[in-house]
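Think of the structure tokens as a kind of shorthand, similar to the way a musician reads notation: each symbol stands for something richer, in this case the local conformation of the backbone. In the example below we present two proteins back to back. Begin with the first one, reading the sequence and then the tokens, and try to describe in your own words what changes along the chain.
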Amino acid sequence: MPGITRRHFLQGTACLAAGTALGLRPLPAMAAGSMGFNEYRRCDGLELARLVRQGEVSPAELLELAIARTEQVNPHINAVVIRHYETARRLAGEALPDGPFRGVPFLLKDLGVSMADTITTHGSRFFREARVAADDAYVRRARQAGLVIFGKTNSPEFGNSPSTEGTLFGDTRNPWNLEHSAGGSSGGAAAAVAAGILPVAHASDGGGSIRLPASSCGLFGLKPSRDLVPIGNGPGEARGLLSAQHVISRSVRDSAAMLDALAWETPGPGFGAPGQGSYLDQLQQALRRLRIAVMRKPLLEMPVDAVCLAALDQAVQLCSELGHELVEAVPEVDMRAAMQASGTLSVAGLAERVAQRETQLGRKVTADDLEPVNMEMLAWGRQLSAVDYLRAQEGLRQTSRDMTRFMEHFDLVLSPTMTWAPPPLGVVDMDLPLDQFGPVATRSSVFTVLYNITGQPAMSVPLYWSPEGLPVGVMFAGRFGAERTLLQLAGQLEQAQPWFDRLPPV
């Protein structure tokens, strides 16, 4: 295990000792006839909304259950870092939009979103008081779906780590084992969903940040195709076209219905012909036999732990039993060049975001404002030229062309989500120098980042748990715009090997 770092010292006693008995205090008793927590946890978001429409439970009651569960479990997992309880209570008592998730509690990730008159810190001390004036498109669509937003979840600074650890709010702990990472950068969202605070939560993904925490916490996580779902209000938030927004959920149908609610009405070519129906409706359609490429190794020379290969083998067997054709194949992609392009675009986005904040504050950023590794990334980003940026964009396009040729022969690609099970906290540490942090972070994201580079949709599916009880996801990626195929397969896998009732000890 790593020693004490500057970040861990700064956190001081704010971090709980992991591995001790939780001793959760009981939830407060609800009024007679109202929903209890066990019933709440047995429902996904669509089922909770159905109960609201039928008058069996009110939005206010659901919100109080989510708040009570937050206050009960959050001291142990540190998932929710900003609370908007009173605003949510007011909204829950008013007439909510009659959307598919009317009355369902919801959390935003504290990164890359704007909700009116609230702070989004991006996990950074430099943004700790960064208040915004208006909702962005994602938040507006979430509200129109009837969701009741009551807080924000933890994220590493600027989402630049596959583990949710940081100085500002501390580390998020995995509900399956408090000594381990919940993944990143949507680790707070995943931990909150896994721990039963809510059934579905906002997440974003610039290199694997939906799929990695979904894998780490035993949940379903779909990264949509590039530009299908609105993201942010500025170029820095999209990480040079690498990032996408959606949710992490316990059920596949919640993810599908959220995609219906969040996606642009006319996303453009490549997203399917008119008349295909909603993403949720697609789950009811029979799935044809798929030809699936099986990729056992990443496109960079890197070990893959036996537990991840065991998860892959189990998924291969299950897909074969369901009638799909599986073929071992490897795309011809220059992954080193692709990663270099990805890194260039990421640090350029970081430099743009920090520059905007410097203008707002009227001062320059200092080493006391950012995590050490982000200070190095910022210096890199500030040295880039316009030529470097254009070359990086061409690198993305070249990788996309290479994968398009490969996908002409396959419907989907199946691989591990990560090369290892969720690592202990402190292994992926933003106090490390960049030349040490990069290889460790890549151990988590080397499979996932490919599809941020190409813009293809990809999902992590929770089909396997290690002998030690840690979730280990597998990833399926589709052709650009093939969310419907991915969701259909996910629904088929969910029915064949259910995971919804598999709950962590927290």
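Once you have a description of the first chain, move to the second and do the same.
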Amino acid sequence: MGNGVEQDKLLQSIRYKRGSLQLLDQRKLPLEITYVDIRDSKDGWTAISDMVVRGAPAIAVAASLSLAVEIANLRDFNGASNDAALFISNTLDYLVCSRPTAVNLSDAANKLKEHIQKVAANASEAPTVFEAYIEVAEIMLEDDVGSNKAIGNFGASFLQKQLTDRRKISVLTHCNTGSLATAGYGTALGVIRSLHEKGVLERTYCTETRPFNQGSRLTAFELVHDNIPATLIADSAAAALMKAGRVDAVIVGADRVAANGDTANKIGTYSLALSALHHGIPFYVAAPLTSIDSSISSGEEIVIEERSAKELLYTHGGMGEQVAASGISVWNPAFDVTPATHISGIVTEKGVITKEGTDSFDIKAFIINTASHSVQKHAI
């Protein structure tokens, strides 16, 4: 790379130390490596909305840390503990509206608010509440990496068991779900990394992922960086690739999973699922449990973000040269919803959720069972 940045640092989408946050500007990858300073929640909101940082887990961590940095540098706050808790709650609500589809952000905000309310109820001074927020936001950063590695291990082991007739496995993935989309390692790309580490990955096929090209700009960048055997394809080539027998499994990430398993992910995911179903290829979703929204019964209730027409009308995500005819109307949804009927399994940090012969997933039962096992383990 021309600017001499060490390669092991290129996959850090989030650089944080108390009082300081930098986000890798993913809009400029793979040609330029630039970090954006985030000084407060307004900077965080803008970075998320403008896709400086993207990927559901990374968005949640970046938003939480942007407020942590603001608080760490806050001077002369006039108010008691309850005022501090209200300030945090209102700011988190503001951050959640930066990108509405990814449930990880709202889930993190709700958990942070709940924690801070408990702290405020037993504290008399604002600094106590602010310190508690910073500490729990920093824990979220650490936990995300551990969660991703668990997803990778569970997913790789599961695919090996399901595809016992394959000595090595070729996987197709969509969008970017790696270190750049999380605090580190990745979800669907974490499974691919784990397969590679186990020596059973034949090849990864990544789609370009139009119109923002997260696949060609980001996923390809990560795969080359890690020396993982990989091939980039046009989005429209996926069906032909499957027909040619070169794909053993499809694995993608998720921005929101409904209670029945319907999944919202980057636009184009639904098309891949339809093609995989037609060709008899298993289709898996890899996501942390924080991506599951138990408050909605199906994908019909998921709000789909629509993005600027410029992303289709111009190159480089709307920042380059015009490529479409002036005056043409544009429909540019950022996500689509894949029904649970088309999904073979959901890989989480607690294991793989399967349908057990039904059309939908019993995610609630899975969560209850894993929570019960965790309690039993700690009791022993």
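Compare your description with these statements about the second chain. The domain at 154-379 is CATH 3.40.50.10470 (Rossmann fold).
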